[in-house]
Amino acid sequence: RPAAHAAGQSARDETLAVDPRFLPLALSILRGDAQQAEANAQELLGSGTTPLDVVNKGVIPALEEVGKRYDSGAFFLPQLISSAETAQRVCELAMELVERSGGIASKGRVLLATVEGDLHDLGKNVVGTVLKSHGFTVVDLGKDVPSARILEEAEKGAFDFVGLSALMTSTMKRMAETTTEIVRRLPGVFVIVGGASVSEDFARTIGAHGYAPDAVSSVRLVESLMASRKNQ
Ligand code: B12
Predict the structure, then answer these.
(1) Nearest CA owner, ligand 1 atom 61
(2) Residue from 120, 131, 173, 223 to probe ligand 1 pocket by mutation (most atoms less than 8 Å from CB)
(3) Less packed terminus of the chain by CB within 10 Å, N or C?
(4) Which helix (H) or strand (E) covers residue 138, if one does?
């Protein structure tokens, strides 16, 4: 690897706005090095760092940086995919620890799905793992999920939220149909939506209760919707 490239990259890495204790983990996620990221996470967890801190201070800043680098053209698709998968692995590891220690009381139940016709699931998976790490129970139906299946699961699962993801203009219509049906049939359930093609305006137009542009704001969104329900 040319020295100039290595130097440029590491100079850039050092400017990452991450608590120094979490820097090795964040850098492993940026590099998509799952093995190293797991080792870094194990070390942090082993020395008493809470799983939530591992996610908030290590995983989330790294993912934000991945997003920036992808948008600016510094990262390409394979890097985006391996970083997202590495982040997911670290979140799973953190969750295993939470579960082994008896779990924490669930803050709410979320059903997630990417709508029918849409195979993009990286972003939804990130949202799911970040919500889980913040104490929500998450059931993920996967990608390309027909509306009928989402409704059926939502009806029987006593969920507080249904989170729908769509990345393509062609699948936004599905998202609208599914949202309308859930709102009509399950009045106690909040529908939240997201994905690259979705906007706050679109969410409002289709009657969803909320929209979040990324995983961090989806935590704020579900927490504020839960609070609004309690205040009623
Ligand atoms: C990765 C990718 C793929 C991968 C998907 C891998 C996977 N397992 O997900 C592969 C290569 C398979 C793929 C295939 C295709 N893709 Co593609 N893909 C992308 C790409 C480059 C990045 C998406 C991504 O993962 N981003 C990273 C994640 C972390 O971000 P995110 O998804 O936006 O999620 C965040 C937020 O949106 C939000 N969020 C997401 N979901 C939810 C849900 C809720 C409830 C909430 C609250 C928040 C939330 O939080 C997430 C985390 O912060 C985008 C371009 C782009 N800039 O979006 C194109 C893009 C989405 N793809 C596109 C297209 C056209 C296709 C194909 C049709 C290509 C083809 N000709 O084969 C196929 C379609 C297959 C199908 N039927 O779905 C177009 C869609 C255009 C459009 N407007 O309709 C895009 C925009 C590229 C482009 N500019 O043309 N793609």
Answers:
(1) 167
(2) 120
(3) C
(4) strand 137-140
109-230 CATH, one of 3.20.20.70, 3.40.50.280, 3.10.290.10, 1.20.1090.10: 3.40.50.280
Task: For residue range 99-114, list pLDDT tens digits in order.
Answer: 777 667 789 999 999 9
Higher pLDDT, 17 or 188: 188
Residue nearest to atom 37 of ligand 1 (CA): 195
Per domain, the residue ranges of the chain are 10-100, 109-230
Question: Measured on CA atoms in the order 54, 55, 57, 59, is the torsion positive or negative?
Answer: positive
160-172 pLDDT per residue, tens:
999 999 999 999 9
Protein residue with least CA distance to atom 28, ligand 1: 123
State the distance from the centre of ligand 1 to the C-alpha of 172, rounded, in angstroms. 12
